[in-house]
């Protein structure tokens, strides 16, 4: 066996960092937490609902975009006829005030947008954050300074304002859900990049990375082969906390009218039209609000559970919304 | 201290210059065609070319940016086709839609946003520090639990949901308040107060959990320190210990955090302003984005950047002033 083999053949298991738990062990630890399990079940349900939206609405016999003028009272400006916003056997959750569109169908299709944008934006954040963090950690002093200062500025700026501003310059034909993912994701990677940089700085001093470097591995190879496997746990943890923030992000932008465009339905958009109906039809406010709340809560407890499962030493009691995630917006 | 301030100032200016460059590049150069936007969709290519020349968009990119900066520092002139329009010193451009100077558009919106932000700060300090105080001193009692639950619930909901729930409760169910409408402070202070009460409460509920946590942690930390034990042994009263030592220690970080939050909010509390129909900077941004009024969008973005960077610097200095142990280097 040559020296070369000895140096590059070392497995990450000899790393000085905490021994990484196998996926099976992580899964077991995750399952043993009741709150996290409940969160996971709620998320799974939401995903099923979002994917099966056409089926569910077919089952109800409605679609999200048909106007039902007969179901709203035109004398009062369009308040749904019937109690709780016009709940009936045909319209399970009532109809939208003003237009009479079926609320169940619109909420179910809204779940699609909410989950799609939140997951997509989180993936963008992870990709950019890991890239920038690794480059800052492995690069020379100048590059590190430049990237770190940029990260600081990204973290300090109110991302919602800048995401809204970005919408202005994109041609109107650009698909909105994709645009929202990019607008939220390209402004929210600061946290991940900071964590990845810090971890990289620690890891690159460890013997196994030094060995890889001596063995002739370039920064690319070191990043991919030696660092990324160890970085998975902190990145997944942080990403899980970004998900609920991004659900709120999409809802916020749609609430402001710069999110998905009609007739596509989104929970945030419903709330913005609900501002004129809250007196006459409180159900119309409470349904999307409740869904946003449940989604955010489920993602948050699941994220907390994932953190505990990946790093039991750092585990703490459940801390809902303790500001650990990216700063939300007012 | 002087050296620190100077260096900090230079750092601030360079961050802002970099920000202005990036913002300018993204908005004026990258994908869109500003002349087309300024002219409108129905313009013929010849008209667009004319507008491009009038706005100076035909010049090389670096020159355009230099003129933009010149406008900010000394003002610049725009040709209006028939005459010349002067744009005064902090010139951020001229609205494509109304022909108004962006700076003056911002100036008319600022009092609204300032009213909202300052009032909200008072409210979140009262609620947040109050909750923190109660939870440090009265752990496990009913008041503590109620306040902690309230602030935590407020923190875990998006701000527009809190606002809508408050509207349902106070305007619709209880009917204690009319739907808030904004009236300027100078016009009618009483109306101003009632109009902003719900927006303030909304932001306070949303922000105060952070402050409660900070106050509580910092007070408990101070109260556990050795010199407090010594004071206690010497018979110094508990009230004196709390107000003079524990609270004072907590206030440092609370003030610093407030400065940052206030700075961010001055750039527009977009969601709150939109929900309650307050004509502030955030609403201006959303509206300008919808009608694609680039100079206004760029103006709001840059001004927000200035507020945030400035607030962060102020927070650092306040930190050092309030806590002698912090040395600024």
Automatic annotation (TrEMBL), chain A:
Keywords attached to this Swiss-Prot or TrEMBL record, sorted alphabetically, are: Cell membrane, Membrane, Transmembrane, Transmembrane helix, Transport
Quote the protein name from its UniProt record: ABC transporter permease
| Family in the record | Belongs to the binding-protein-dependent transport system permease family.
**Which SUPFAM superfamilies did the record assign?**
MetI-like
Please name the InterPro entries in this protein's record: BP-dependent_transpt_permease (IPR050366), MetI-like (IPR000515), MetI-like_sf (IPR035906), OppC_N (IPR025966)
Give the matching PANTHER family.
D,D-DIPEPTIDE TRANSPORT SYSTEM PERMEASE PROTEIN DDPC-RELATED, OLIGOPEPTIDE TRANSPORT SYSTEM PERMEASE PROTEIN APPC
Q: Which residues form the ABC transmembrane type-1 domain?
A: 111-303
Localisation: Cell membrane
The answer to keyword Transmembrane applying to this record is yes
Q: Which domain of life is it from?
A: Bacteria
Please report the record's description of how this protein sits within the membrane. Answer: Multi-pass membrane protein
Q: Where are the transmembrane segments?
A: 35-56, 113-139, 151-171, 177-196, 227-247, 284-303
Automatic annotation (TrEMBL), chain B:
Is the keyword Transmembrane assigned to this protein?
A: yes
- Enumerate the spans annotated as ABC transmembrane type-1 domain: 110-319
**InterPro entries in the record:** BPD_transp_1_N, MetI-like, MetI-like_sf
Top-rank lineage group of the source organism: Bacteria
Q: Where in the cell is it found?
A: Cell membrane
Membrane found in the keyword field: yes
List the transmembrane segments: 9-30, 114-137, 157-179, 191-209, 249-271, 291-315
Primary location = membrane
The annotated topology with respect to the bilayer is:
Multi-pass membrane protein
Q: Which Pfam families match?
A: BPD_transp_1, BPD_transp_1_N
Alphabetically ordered keywords of this record? Cell membrane, Membrane, Transmembrane, Transmembrane helix, Transport
What protein family is recorded?
A: Belongs to the binding-protein-dependent transport system permease family.
| PANTHER family membership | DIPEPTIDE TRANSPORT SYSTEM PERMEASE PROTEIN DPPB-RELATED, DIPEPTIDE-TRANSPORT INTEGRAL MEMBRANE PROTEIN ABC TRANSPORTER DPPB-RELATED
Q: What is this protein called?
A: ABC transporter permease
């Amino acid at each position: 066996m040559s020296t070369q083999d000895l140096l590059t053949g070392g497995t990450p298991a000899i790393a000085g960092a905490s021994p990484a738990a196998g996926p099976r062990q992580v899964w077991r630890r995750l399952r043993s937490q009741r709150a996290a399990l409940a969160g996971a079940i709620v998320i799974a349900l939401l995903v099923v609902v979002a994917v099966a939206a056409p089926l569910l609405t077919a089952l109800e016999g409605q679609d999200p975009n048909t106007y039902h003028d007969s179901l709203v009272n035109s004398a009062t400006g369009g308040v749904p006829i019937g109690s709780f916003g016009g709940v009936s056997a045909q319209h399970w959750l009532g109809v939208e005030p003003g237009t009479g569109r079926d609320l169940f169908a619109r909420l179910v299709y809204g779940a699609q947008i909410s989950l799609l944008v939140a997951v997509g934006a989180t993936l963008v954040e992870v990709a950019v954050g890991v890239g920038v963090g690794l480059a800052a950690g492995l690069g020379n002093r100048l590059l590190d300074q430049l990237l770190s200062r940029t990260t600081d500025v990204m973290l300090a700026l109110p991302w919602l304002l800048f995401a809204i501003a970005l919408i202005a310059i994109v041609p109107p034909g650009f698909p909105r859900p994709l645009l929202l993912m990019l607008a939220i994701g390209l402004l929210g990677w600061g946290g991940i990049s900071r964590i990845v940089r810090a971890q990289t700085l620690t890891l690159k001093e460890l013997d196994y990375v030094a060995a890889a470097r001596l063995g002739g591995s370039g920064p690319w190879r070191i990043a991919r082969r030696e660092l990324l496997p160890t970085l998975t746990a902190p990145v997944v943890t942080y990403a899980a906390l970004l998900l609920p923030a991004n659900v709120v992000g999409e809802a916020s932008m749609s609430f402001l009218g710069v999110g998905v465009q009609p007739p596509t339905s989104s929970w945030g958009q419903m709330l913005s039209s609900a501002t004129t109906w809250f007196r006459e039809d409180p159900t119309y406010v409470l349904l999307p609000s409740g869904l946003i709340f449940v989604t955010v809560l489920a993602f948050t407890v699941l994220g907390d559970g994932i953190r505990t499962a990946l790093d039991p030493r750092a585990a703490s009691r459940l801390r809902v919304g303790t500001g650990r995630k990216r700063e939300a917006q007012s | 201290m002087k050296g620190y301030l100077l260096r900090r100032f230079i750092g601030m200016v360079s961050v802002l210059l970099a920000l202005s460059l990036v913002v300018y590049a993204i908005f004026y150069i990258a994908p869109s065609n500003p002349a087309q936007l300024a002219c409108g969709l129905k313009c013929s290519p010849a008209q667009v070319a004319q507008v491009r020349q009038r706005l100076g968009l035909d010049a090389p990119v670096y020159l355009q940016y230099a003129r933009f900066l010149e406008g900010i520092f000394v003002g610049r002139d725009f040709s209006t086709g028939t005459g010349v329009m002067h744009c005064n010193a902090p010139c951020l451009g001229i609205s494509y839609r109304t022909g108004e100077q962006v700076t003056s558009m911002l100036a008319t919106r600022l009092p609204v946003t300032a009213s909202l932000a300052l009032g909200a700060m008072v409210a979140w300090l009262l609620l947040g520090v109050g909750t923190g105080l109660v939870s440090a001193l009265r752990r496990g009692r009913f008041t503590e639990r109620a306040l902690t639950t309230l602030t935590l619930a407020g923190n875990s909901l998006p701000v527009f949901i809190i606002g809508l729930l408050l509207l349902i409760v106070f305007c619709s169910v209880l009917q204690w308040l009319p739907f808030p409408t904004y009236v300027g402070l100078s016009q009618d202070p009483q109306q101003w107060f009632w109009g902003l009460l719900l927006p303030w409460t909304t932001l306070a509920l949303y922000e105060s959990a952070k402050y409660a946590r900070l106050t509580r942690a910092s007070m408990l930390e101070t109260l556990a320190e050795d010199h407090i034990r010594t004071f206690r042994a010497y018979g110094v009263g508990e009230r004196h210990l709390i107000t003079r030592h524990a609270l004072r220690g907590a206030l440092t970080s609370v003030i610093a955090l407030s400065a940052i939050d206030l700075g961010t909010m001055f750039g527009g509390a977009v969601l709150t302003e939109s929900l309650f129909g307050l004509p502030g900077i955030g609403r201006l941004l959303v509206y300008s984005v919808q009608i694609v009024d680039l100079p206004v969008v760029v103006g709001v973005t840059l001004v927000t950047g200035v507020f945030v960077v400035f607030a962060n610097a102020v927070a650092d200095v306040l930190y050092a002033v309030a806590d002698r142990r912090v040395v600024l280097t």
